[in-house]
Structure formats: C-alpha cells, structure tokens
C-alpha cells in the first residue's frame, strides 16, 4: 500500500455534512455481475446512500455476456433461465416481457438443455456413422436410470462405496458399463457403441458441471444442488437484458468500470491503533468513467465519519486509489479467489475459509459458435453429438494438448434459424478448453470443420463464414465459468466460503456483550451474534461479506444463485442497520 497515493477528503458541502450527522455506513461492492448488482440495488432501495460498485472490466454483467452480431444475439456466458417456479430471474424476465418471443421449442423441460426441444439429437461416430435411433434411446434410458441413482447418496444419506472413489463420473461410468456388459440381448457391436457413448455423455456432464472432468465431482454432495421446477427458458433479446434491468435502479455514479481491486485491507481497528495513513476518498471526488453504467454526473455522498476516525476496511485499487469503507461485499469468482486470495486480503483469510476455497471446484466451459451460409444438417436435427468409437474402453476424460478437440462433446443447432441464421454451438470444458482458448480463430474453425466432416461423413462441408467463442478460463477477472462440489468438498464448504468476516463468535471482545449494553447501538436485537456497536465498537462486524454463485449452497453455478446471494448479503447489512434507518423515517 505504501506505493499508492491517497485521495484527499474534500467533502465540505451541506449534503455531505448532513449525511455525516446521520451516520450513513459506506459499502463497497466488488464486482458488477448479477450478485454485485443485486446487492447494490437492494441496499439502495433500503436507504443506503453511500454505496460504490467497483468493476474490474469495462462492462457490467460478469459471467453474463450477450454479443450482438448482425440481427442475432449470442450468449458467451449464461444462456438459460433454469426453472421458473420461484426463480427470481424468471420472474424478472417474465414481468418485463423478455420471454414474449421465446418459442415453445425454447422452453425445455429436459435435464440437459439444448437450444430447442424440437427435433432429435444425431449421434455420430468418428467413422462417419450415425448411431441408430433405437440404440440411442436404449442407452439414454439406461444412463438416466443411473444418473438418478447419483442423487440418492446425498438426498437419502446412502453410503458411498470405495469403488466409486466418491466420484460422480467413476460411479456412473462403471455402473453403466456393467449394465451394458450384462445385457444378454445386445450383440457385441451394439455393446461397443453403447460403451463408447458413455464417454460422450460424461463429456456433456463435465460441460454442464463446468469441471475438467465429471470424475472430479463429488458423489456424496451431488444431490445437494437443487433444481427449480419448471422449464428452462432462453431470452431471445439476450440474457444481458436481465442485467440491464437490475442496473436500471442503480444511479450511474455508483458503478465504476475499469476499476480492478488490488487488495482488501480489513480488520483495521484490531490490526493497529490507527488505520493506514490515508485520508478518506473525497465525497464527490470519485473517478469518472465513460463505460456503460457509469455515465452521468456524480452525487456527493457522506460517510458519517469524522476525518480522523478509524475505518475498519480499506479497499486498495490497482490504480492506487484507496477507498475506506465500513463494509465490503466481495463477489469475485471462485476462480479468482483460488488464484489470488493470498494477496487479495490483508490480513489473510481464516484457515477454514482458505481450505473451503481450495476444496470447492471451478472449471471452464466454453462455447464455439460457427456460422454457415447454408445448413448441412437436416431440419429434424437439433444437435450433432460426437462419439469416438475408440473410447469404448476409456476411463479418462483427459487428453494431451494436441488432442484438445476430442473434448468437444458436440454441436447444438441454434433455433429458430429465422433469429440466428445457420449457426452451430459447440461445447468444450476443462484443461482442453484452456488449450482451445490459446488457439486463434482460424485454427479452431479449421479443426471444427474437419471434425464435422469426419463425423458426418460429408467431406464437402465448407468452413464457417464466422466464428465466435468464449474464453472464461484465461480471463483474469473470472478464471473459470462456474463452481461445483469437487471430490472432498461438500455444501458445508459453500457455507464457510459465504461466512462474513470477522468471525465474531471467535472474538473474545465480542463474547458476553449484548446489543442492549452498547449505548447508541445501531444493531437490531435480532442479530445476537453481531454484538458490537457498528460505529463505535472496537471490532466492526461484517466487514467483509461474500456473495456470488459459488456461495449459494443450493443454487451454486446458476444465475439465480448469484442474484439471491447478492440479496442475501445486502439483507445482512439491512438488518444490521435496521434501527438506524427506522430512526431516520
């Protein structure tokens, strides 16, 4: 921090002085994805006026990224609203007319979402053969029976045997393999095809879980993830419309784009008699940004602080600005926490939180969009699924870098063509996705074209006229797509990750002090664990809060999980300061 210059406090206007008398808490939200925007919006709606959102990139939305090409909108990130009954994302979209143009084919109730439930999936082998429909249906029924068994270990407390290695992939592969081999009616050739199909299905599962391999996903915790009832929906105008709806209620000056954070210095009052030798950032002296969501004039904001009073948290930005705060809501991805937690927090995170970060998993799932002049697939085909016949005996989903393309599980047909044109969307995940991200567009387009020719048996398929792809793994502000419960982790780790700092129950100064014993106390009596005065107490509760999809125990990996986690952390602060805002009414 010594290398950074601090901003001066130039707030001397009547409004700032008025807010200073009212004792407004200052909240900094790190990240302008769904979680960060939801948190900021909730706080502002409940009367918090000193809220700042710091977004490292040049855009809002986080892992929602809709790209407009011509008249079509393509989703590099979140694509589906998963479930409708009680899903806040669905209700927000539906209430604002975002689903009016969603076709019946885009309302899928299947477990594995495709762009359309209409038509059939074409399973093709690397020898240019299409697997007969009856074989596909038989295998699919068998696979789904076994998949349903994977849910029972958590939901019914079923013990996990040693052979499964507590792995969804290992259990599924061996169970399906044994059932195929024990079937007395199938000829050997059919059994070989079905055995090869196991790997293809597990690649799809790996992409859906955003793991390198479904073998790394915990079997004992797999059933804890909760699916919201109802259909999966696609938003024709783009998932970014949901993000924009959330941002509409947030004043432009609140969101600062292109503002990466270097370090969160927390527990400042306990660390030293006085905080860092800085002056608080000037009220109304915020950096202007011309990016989306940050345009317009800035309103002066007060802190409720005397200039020499200690702040419990100081946010140090990459541009050397330091922002003092009462509370910071951290919404960065699990991938960023895994790579940067040691330098991102001072003092370092508690041991159990670090252990939870290491145990939980996050991987990369990327999309590859290929646009063609004309379709080479039939009108009944909704996807092209790649089955490598030489993988019938394979027990791994890991490939050497030069064979990264083998991890592509297939291509979905974007539907309807009147909206998208003739476009295929390929899926790839894991370390192989990271290799793909390092290749240029020309190389990826060439390899994908060769694969399509090989699997369809049609050597005349032309190269696509345009390619668009995501790169979530190598993006320094994400380092992955979304989280999963890795072998060795559980939902308890999600709870540990979400727990605010400092841990008040382990603080000796907090023990035995009730809220009624604190004169001028601003906390609600409904928060017994947060027992110190939020303005005058020596240890400020909830200095650092955590949200984002990885912090939601039931809905991790989803957009609704991200949104709900942001609202959850805002609710903690709203309850904490409930009495303050009631006094102001």
UniProtKB/TrEMBL annotation:
> What ranges does the record give for the region Disordered, renumbered to this chain?
271-310, 505-524
According to its UniProt entry, the protein's GO biological process terms are:
spermine catabolic process
Q: Where is the composition biased (Polar residues)?
A: 505-518
One GO cellular component term, please give it. Answer: cytosol
Per the record, the domain of life is Eukaryota
A Pfam family per the record = Amino_oxidase
Please list the residue ranges that the record marks as compositionally biased, kind Basic and acidic residues: 274-291
Q: Which GO terms describe its molecular function?
A: polyamine oxidase activity
Question: Keywords in UniProt for this one?
Answer: FAD, Flavoprotein
Q: Does the keyword Cell inner membrane apply?
A: no
Amine oxidase domain sequence ranges: 34-268, 313-574
> Which cofactor does this sequence's record say it needs?
FAD
- Keyword tRNA processing assigned to the entry: answer is no
Record's protein name = Spermine oxidase
